[in-house]
Design brief:
Shape: elongated
Number of helices: 13
Oligomer: single chain
Number of strands: 6
Largest sheet: 6 strands, mixed
Helix content: 55-70%
Radius of gyration: 27 Å
Order of helices and strands: HHEHEHEEHEEHHHHHHHH
């Protein structure tokens, strides 16, 4: 009696052969591992050069009609930013995205001389800018006093800053998650799209399709080898960033494992996109165009190299629904803030919606010959 065909053995054989094919191509290792490490070193080495600039928030209860407030607005090195969300305000302060939060209080009334008290709140995350920022406040105060010399003027008092001790948010804590997303985005899309396109053109997929192996095993066998390879590159990047550049893994090995789990979710999404591109492409020369149309906007708009807050508000809303934004944000929450992957339900939910749409499209356009 003939033994039943083993789908698991077929899946393992396809996966193993595809994995060997990846390592037979040295360029895959260079582009997936070496280049991202170089990018991490370059961008991670960036400091706050290019001129001194201070991002400052003003509390809602501040007096914005005082001379001191207008002095802040006129200072070329100070950028006043406004927040409607107090949680986001405190988070940016703890991450060092803000130099300080100022509260400008007007004192005095009709019976006594007017005055202004400026309260300064900062954190050790802004240690590289708060020290040089305080003399700027003193200069604004002095400038107002000189301009009003000889006439009655308000008393201005800049209080000693209240500086809260927080965990230092390094440049690498922003850069490395973006580089992880950048690496798996393009490497996975190019790997999956070209692999399946080549197998289809060479009629390998057609032969597989005619074999007893079911469709899912064929797709997983070829795709999983690529996903395993991308996970390997992610492991190398995280370990390099942590041990060489002090990338924060807040909860150690548990944070590392949760980042890997988040990466697996993103890889399955990208695998679906690669399948779509391999099926709709007429020639192999059109695949890079399709990948760049999908990937380049995300590379620029998903917080890979710089925060999305630098964009106009309307564009930020578009940025926040992109799949790479969800991955970047989730990894940063898990790594630096120490949140669990279960706290990233919003990011996972949006990725889930993207994945559902992508695989519905892939099921309709997938070609075997």
């Amino acid at each position: 009696m003939a033994k039943p065909y083993s789908q698991s053995r077929a899946l393992w054989a396809i996966t193993r052969a595809s994995f060997k094919a990846i390592f037979a191509n040295p360029s895959a290792i260079i582009f997936s591992i070496l280049f991202p490490i170089i990018f991490v070193m370059i961008f991670g080495a960036f400091g706050s050069g290019g001129g001194v600039s201070y991002r400052v928030a003003i509390t809602p209860d501040s007096d914005t009609s005082s001379e001191f407030y207008y002095g802040l607005k006129k200072a070329g090195v100070i950028r006043i930013v406004h927040y409607n969300d107090s949680a986001l305000l405190n988070k940016d302060l703890q991450r060092g995205k803000l130099t300080a939060i100022l509260t400008i209080i007007s004192t005095g009334d009709s019976t006594k001389k007017p005055g202004t008290v400026v309260k300064v709140r900062s954190t050790t995350a802004s240690a590289n800018t708060i020290g040089s920022f305080l003399p700027v406040l003193d200069y604004i105060k002095l400038k107002i006093e000189v301009a009003n010399a000889g006439i009655e003027q308000e008393n201005i008092a800049v209080e000693e800053p209240v500086i809260k001790e927080v965990r230092k948010y390094r440049q690498i804590d922003f850069i490395l998650p973006g580089q992880l997303g950048f690496s798996i985005l393009f490497s996975t899309l190019f790997g999956i799209a070209f692999t399946f396109f080549g197998l289809r053109e060479q009629l390998v997929l057609k032969r597989f399709y005619a074999s007893p192996v079911n469709k899912l095993s064929i797709l997983l066998g070829i795709g999983m080898s690529r996903l395993f390879f991308q996970l390997l590159s992610v492991v190398v990047l995280i370990l390099f960033g942590h041990f060489v550049m002090n990338f924060t893994l807040q909860n150690g090995i548990f944070t590392f494992l949760e980042i890997m789990l988040m990466t697996i979710i993103m890889l399955f999404l990208l695998m679906g996109v690669g399948l779509i591109f391999s099926s709709i492409a007429k020639t192999d020369t059109s695949i890079p165009l399709l990948i760049n149309l999908f990937g380049f906007p995300q590379m620029m708009l998903s917080g890979t190299f710089f925060p999305i807050e630098v964009f106009p508000k309307w564009l930020q809303e578009i940025c926040r629904v992109l799949p790479l934004t969800q991955y970047n944000d989730a990894v940063r929450k898990i790594s630096f803030e120490g949140l669990s992957i279960f706290n990233c339900w919003k990011e996972i939910g949006i990725l889930g919606i993207w994945m559902l749409i992508i695989y519905i499209i892939a099921a309709r356009v997938l070609k075997w010959e």
